[in-house]
Design brief:
alpha/beta, Nucleotidyltransferase, domain 5, two-stranded antiparallel sheet, 43% helix, globular
């Protein structure tokens, strides 16, 4: 078995996953794999399982996001399905899961709700991974990486 890795997940169809090692170095970051098109777009659970089996994370931290007023029923259903597939894949691989609210991890990492702030923090923290956070759209990758770093920090504080 390789080095212990913490997996951070920013769930959803436009979500991402990141792995940090025990030193807090970013080992990998990637968009969650999806399949289908339009309203049939979904998380590709088989591909996600393959990716996670290859890296063997020892723990997973998943952002626990809830419905917000004004969000459509259809979009919340799709988000819930995506989050459920991610949790199911991780659980089937027997990776312990810890759920964390956005407010908790962002407060601990001294961030606001601003997704651009998370992307800039990821660029500062892991400058050698600048290409992974280069686009405004890469805020999901940034949040996944910062969630993983939060998980490492919280584990070390125990």
């Amino acid at each position: 078995m390789g080095e212990p890795l913490i997996l951070g997940i920013d769930p959803g169809l436009s979500g991402a996953a990141a792995l940090v090692n025990q030193a807090g170095e970013l080992v990998d970051v990637f968009d969650l794999p999806i399949a289908g098109e339009g309203k049939l777009t979904r998380i590709d659970g088989a591909n996600l399982s393959r990716l996670l089996r290859a890296t063997r994370p020892t723990a997973a931290i998943i952002e626990a996001v809830a419905a917000r007023p004004g969000q459509g029923v259809s979009s919340m259903f799709r988000f819930g399905m995506a989050t459920g597939v991610v949790a199911g894949v991780i659980g089937s691989l027997e990776i312990p899961i810890r759920w964390v609210s956005p407010a908790s991890w962002k407060r601990a990492m001294r961030l606001t709700a601003d997704k651009e702030a998370a992307r800039l923090r990821a660029l500062e923290t892991w400058p050698n991974h600048a290409r992974d956070f280069a686009r405004k759209h890469d805020h999901g990758r940034a949040e996944a990486a910062l969630i993983a770093a939060y998980g490492l920090r919280e584990r070390d504080a125990r």
